[in-house]
Specification:
By secondary structure, this protein is an alpha/beta fold. Helices cover 36% and strands 25% of the residues. It is built from 15 helices and 15 strands. It has helices at 87-93, 99-104, 109-118, 121-137, 153-167, 187-207, 224-236, 253-259, 273-280, 290-296, 303-309, 329-339, 344-350, 353-358, 385-388; strands at residues 2-16, 30-41, 44-50, 57-71, 73-75, 140-146, 173-180, 212-216, 240-245, 264-267, 285-288, 313-315, 375-378, 395-400, 403-404. α6 runs parallel beside α7 (224-236) and α10 packs across α12 (329-339). The chain starts with a strand and ends with a strand. Bound molecules: N-(iminomethyl)-L-glutamic acid and fe (iii) ion.
Amino acid sequence: MTADQLLTNVAQLVTPAGVGASRGRDMRKLDITRDAAIAISDGQVIWCGPRREWTGAADVEIDAGWCAVVPGLVDPHTHAVWGGDRLADFESRATGVSYEETLAAGGGIRHTVACTTASDTDALLQATLQRVRRMTRAGATTIEIKSGYGFTLEHELRQLAVVRALAALVPATLVPTMLFHLPPRDAAARVDWMQAAVFEWMPAIRDAAVGSVDVFIEQDAFSVAEAGELLRAARAQGLQCKAHTDQFNAIGGTELAIAHDALSVDHLEASGPAQIAAIAASRTAGVLLPGVTLHLHMAAADGRALIDAGAVVAVGTDCNPGSSPLFSLSLAMALAVRLNGLTPAEALTACTVNGAAALGLADRGRIVPGSRADFLLLRSADWRDLPYTLGDDAVARVFIAGIETS
Ligand code: NIG
Ligand code: FE
């Protein structure tokens, strides 16, 4: 066998064990190979194992410098396209005004929508490019990016077009999602708007080559009945669905999304035993967003209970200006151990193969023959430094489809 590249001097090659999404306590099972090598051709792993067992040839040999190597991280939840900032909200929250109060008063997300729709497309693209670069430096090689700061079909599609344009400029895989973030505040306008969303927006979203629709289901956002109409219409167009559920109140969003075979339900801070049991009994991944817990100083989702119940659990940054200005999925992984009760191994699985599962991607998240050659060289010879280190990323070098990113 001849490889394009052979990565050698790998102190530990670490990858989640098993096949497909990793569920419950299986999330703790990692395969760890010491003094390993990885053979890569055409952007894919073609062989990996103990260095001494490699008998093939390679055009190029890359010296990993005796570090640990883990799969590239998969961030299944970001809102990385935005204009303006939320620095005033940040200051007022420190004086006791809550996120929900700001939102109910017409600020928060609505402020970001005003700033985003006022930004010109090139400025949005440049700002998002810088954010994606920061995310990739911290280890994310696949990044989902939602719209949701447009509110009109034209502006939502513009945000999604920015994601598509960026996907051609960066080595990371970018996965666009249409987010139904908030309905109109006026009750009469809301009914007409729902009709347009179901009958006009959904076909346009499908035609824009967007694979998934997300809905924010919450007391101050979409009701369960409205979200049901949106998710049904999305499925009828062949779109996948997911939802922001149980962020502040468990109003039935998790159960609704599961009934639509959602890829994921995300947030879950207010989920109780019934929601946790429903997720565990489903194929839908539960996505934890510990950056929100930290930034809004709110309750953490009970990741421990989800995993013990047998759920597929993933972790995302939720990178956005209002609830989680967090760019590093490495740090989200580290926070999931401290705030959501995950073990370090579960957190690594949550940020790799289960993040991929939450996006419906089966070709990444593990370092095994046939997977995409997305992997990270850590600064340390021990992979546990990745979830251990806080704030100073433990990632030294990032490879995407076998090519080192700068
Ligand atoms: O995931 N919960 C709603 N949406 C985002 C926040 C967006 C914002 O505050 O701008 C979230 O937390
Ligand atoms: Fe979000």
